[in-house]
Amino acid sequence: MRNKNRREFLKDSAAAGAGAAGISLLNATSSRSATAASADKVLGANDRIRVGLIGCGGQGRADLRQMLKIKNIECVALCDVDDEQTARAVKMVQTEASQNPSLTTRDFKRVLDDKDIDAVIIGTPDHWHAVPTILACQAGKDVYVEKPLSISIGEGRVMDDSGPKSNRIDKLGKRQITPTT
After folding, report:
1. What is the Cα–Cα distance from 27 to 66, expressed in whole angstroms?
2. 85 phi and psi, to 5 degrees?
3. pLDDT > 70? residue 55
């Protein structure tokens, strides 16, 4: 087995992290869903996870790309302060997942206000991880947030408490870089 370089390691770790978060979200949603025998045959609202991306830069798009590989994930919202990043994300979702997000915005609070969105991916710059994560949990959204969780211990503690207090799933994108020798 050959040693992976840093770029390959990061790519594989992102795929695993986003996939694990998606599976956790899917399992949490599916355990609350269908009771009728015909439910397996009909794709209803309880069988889909509607996801919004907050922060459409390269890492956010990579996380969303991995999430969209999971069955029954639907991207319905894209948010970034940079319209070019949002446009890139729209194009990626349309070409790779044959989906058309119904909401594109610069204001992440519009994503959080949408009651039809089940989960959000936070792919903002590091110093903007805390506020959207805390507000997303308070808004009843499951959250996958990129690492680092926060830039201060106080922020991290508030974020760490926000998931369980709101009965939401919150996942941190954990990657560990090991130096090559």
Report:
1. 17
2. -65, -40
3. yes
